Amino acid sequence: MRAFYFDNVPGDQRLLHDSGNPVSDEILKSIGVLHWHIPTSQQNQIDAIAEERSYKNRDTITITKEGLGDLYEAKLKSFFEEHMHEDEEIRYILEGSGFFDVRDSWIRCQLDAGDLLVLPAGIYHRFTLDESNMIKALRLFKDEPKWTPINRGNSTDVNPYRVDYLKTLAVN
Ligand code: KMT
Ligand code: NI
């Protein structure tokens, strides 16, 4: 995985938008974002991390025009709306690639097969496919799947999970 500051240049969200300023693992860690690279031939390591971090459930998601049919454009639009979840967002990329953008100032995380990304509950983020237009990912969950996006807004800013997340930043 590679992370860099988003260039904020308007235009196609699928393009790289690399400002040329890389983002270090220390910075990612300071905002609660973790990542690993585990070759897809060694998926037993995913089981070990899942065990260690109490990820009890999983499913796979494939985002392609063929797979999603009529829902494709609407799904892509909703993934790219700035949102948060009341649980960690854990994604292990099986095939394809895409970008997860995380706040505060947009940091773009570029993910390929074998990348495992963990976003903390309460962090604002968004997702887009890149120009390859295909991603297949394993979604892991601590408990019942709780992946409903809660779009950014005044009521989200005071969501208890958001408030708890902001508290973790304050101690860094
Ligand atoms: C989310 O909630 O941001 C997503 O699930 C993005 C798509 S997973 C490749
Ligand atoms: Ni999300």
Mind explaining what this structure looks like?
The chain has 172 residues and is an alpha+beta fold. The chain has a single domain (2-166), classed as Jelly Rolls (Sandwich), CATH 2.60.120.10. It has helices at 25-30, 44-52, 65-68, 72-79, 154-157, 160-170; strands at 2-6, 18-22, 34-37, 57-63, 83-84, 89-102, 107-112, 115-119, 125-129, 135-141, 150-151. The strands form 2 sheets. Strands 1, 2, 3, 4, 6, 7, 8, 9 and 10 form a 9-stranded antiparallel beta sheet that branches. The chain has a two-stranded antiparallel sheet with strand order 5-11. A hairpin with a 4-residue loop joins strand 6 (89-102) and strand 7 (107-112). The radius of gyration is 15 Å and the shape is globular. The mean pLDDT is 95. Residues 61, 63, 79, 89, 91, 98, 127, 135, 137, 147, 149 line the site of 4-(methylsulfanyl)-2-oxobutanoic acid.
Number of helices: 6
How big a fraction of the residues is strand?
A: 35-45%
| Strand runs, count | 11
Residue windows where pLDDT falls under 50 for at least 5 positions: none
Cofactors and ligands:
4-(methylsulfanyl)-2-oxobutanoic acid, nickel (II) ion
For CATH, the homologous superfamily is named as: Jelly Rolls
Order of helices and strands: EEHEHEHHEEEEEEEHH
How far apart are the termini?
Answer: 23 Å
What profile does the largest beta sheet have?
Answer: 9 strands, antiparallel
Q: What's the number of structural domains?
A: 1
Give Rg in angstroms: 15 Å
**On the 0-100 scale, what is the average pLDDT?**
95
Shape: globular
CATH structural architecture: Sandwich
Look at the helices and sheets and give the structural class: alpha+beta
Helical amount among residues, as a percent range?
A: 10-25%
CATH class: Mainly Beta
CATH topology: Jelly Rolls
